[in-house]
Amino acid sequence: MSARPPIRTFKPRRRPLSDARAALLERLAPAWCLPETGAPFDPTVTFGRSAPLVLDIGIGFGDTLTTIAGERRDWDLIGADVHTPGIASTLARIEAMELTNVRLVHGDALVFVERLAPASLDGIWVFFPDPWPKARHRHRRIASESNIETFVALLRPGGSLHVATDIDDYAAQVERVCGSHPALDGGVVPRPGWRPRTRYERKGMTAGRRAIDLIYRRA
Known about the structure:
The protein is of the alpha/beta class. It is 35% helix and 22% strand. The protein has one domain (42-218): Vaccinia Virus protein VP39 (Rossmann fold, 3-Layer(aba) Sandwich). Helix 1 crosses helix 4 (84-97).
């Protein structure tokens, strides 16, 4: 573990769970949630196989993560989020959809990645992260130079970092940081048909915002 915790890239949102959701979380979390900290993570032990491995950072209520997991059962997916209602909702979907290729991290992804081996991920997804629109908060954006450097080290050669945002300034930051990294190649792409629309994205569309997808591959 590093001596200092990473800069918080998310806004705390506290909302109590219903009794039913609290019971569901208590019942399912031991089977499907990974500790935020601990020994080096071995995906072949957790998933019982060797398969493409993707980390989804900031899964919201898990609808996008579980939809893709159901369609791509040959992938293994780890979804991370700090917000308890979203984790509980995702666990409910995992059970209802009988998914075996998903695990969750109820905590900060930037802490969990310290358990991952270099070049162990085939993909990292960051879909509609907290925009931190105020200038004094820009250093909290997950698309910082230091975080991108961490992500690049975790990607296998040919692995991809996929960011989606409907904040033009955020997309410009991703282009600037990733475009200047010597190990990354890519940029803005047409919206991939395999990426379901998130709840946040649909709200943005109603408000007149457009989603921008950026994909960068590790050379």
